[in-house]
Specification:
single chain, about 290 residues, alpha/beta, seven-stranded parallel β-sheet, Rossmann fold
Length: about 290
């Protein structure tokens, strides 16, 4: 037993405080928030396991991370491919036990001019990527983290998971599922020493958002700023990382207002989500 008097604090070394996670997995790492988070953790003595859809962009992220001193394992994978992603994650974990997993892979689908209904194929691609892709990433790690008695899983949700919007119903549904899954997972893994964080980003300047025709969203921020917020709060072990907080709490308040009023307000905005062919190709990060 320790001879340290009860009630005293143990000061961690500055090295431990700076780098609570030594082996970090990021899916959707080739662009957007996933890329920014991966580079936010790139440093000497850190191992990054990165996966994304675009091989050229992923190679670029890996090269930049290595230039910052990190060791990197990068693989072009589709998070919907359960067996392939599972094998890769377990192989990485065998060599570099993963301390932190960030599920950044996701795609968007929605409505636009002349398209009153979402493409059924796109809807299923979004569900398979945004929700099942998260399960495919988390499942290979949970038992291993629990056996080690440490680790953290960070699931990327969205403000759209708080209140569904009429121009992105399926996307919002997948993110709402992630929110609820994170809540349940956090309670079930806590007794084993494994933490769960739910990341709820606001409007981040990514190619995915830039392709949307809509009024300029409020409090738009860069992926790099978002990644700094995410890393700072992950390092503190935050259960919910929602930003900007004004938008997060604003949506919470909206949810208690009369539905007729809020439905009218959301429907009054003109938003056009471009068509894509995500059902035909591999999925990638929050682009």
């Amino acid at each position: 037993m320790s001879d340290r008097p009860k009630g005293t604090w143990v000061r961690r070394s500055s090295r431990t405080a700076r780098h609570p996670y030594r082996s970090v997995l990021v899916t959707g790492a080739s662009s957007g928030i996933g890329r920014a988070v991966a580079l936010a953790y790139a440093a000497p003595d850190i191992h990054l396991a990165l996966t994304g859809r675009d091989a050229a962009r992923l190679d670029g992220v890996a090269a930049e991370a290595r230039s910052r001193g990190a060791s990197v394992s990068a693989e072009t994978l589709d998070v919907r491919a359960r067996d392939a992603i599972g094998r890769w994650i377990r192989a990485i974990d065998d060599g570099h036990p993963i301390d932190l997993a960030v599920t950044g892979a996701g795609i968007a689908t929605g409505l636009g001019m002349g398209r009153p209904r979402e493409d059924p194929r796109e809807m299923r691609a979004a569900i398979a990527t945004n929700y099942l892709g998260v399960l495919n990433t988390v499942e290979p790690l949970v038992e291993r983290m629990c056996a080690r008695g440490r680790g953290r899983v960070a699931l990327v949700g969205s403000l759209g998971g708080i209140r569904g919007v009429p121009y992105m119903p399926t996307y919002c549904a997948t993110k709402a599922a992630i929110h609820v899954y994170a809540e349940g997972l956090r309670c079930s893994l806590a007794p084993f020493g494994v933490g769960v964080s739910l990341i709820i980003p606001g409007f981040v300047r990514t190619p995915m958002l830039e392709n949307v025709v809509a009024p300029r969203p409020p409090l738009l921020m860069s992926p790099e700023k978002a990644a700094r917020i995410i890393r700072r709060r992950l390092d503190r072990g935050a259960a919910v990382i929602a930003f900007p907080r004004s938008l997060y709490y604003g949506l919470k308040v909206i949810n208690v207002l009369p539905r007729r009023l809020t439905d009218f307000a959301f429907s009054s905005y003109h938003v056009d989500i471009p068509e894509s062919s995500e059902h035909e190709i591999q999925a990638d990060g929050e682009r």
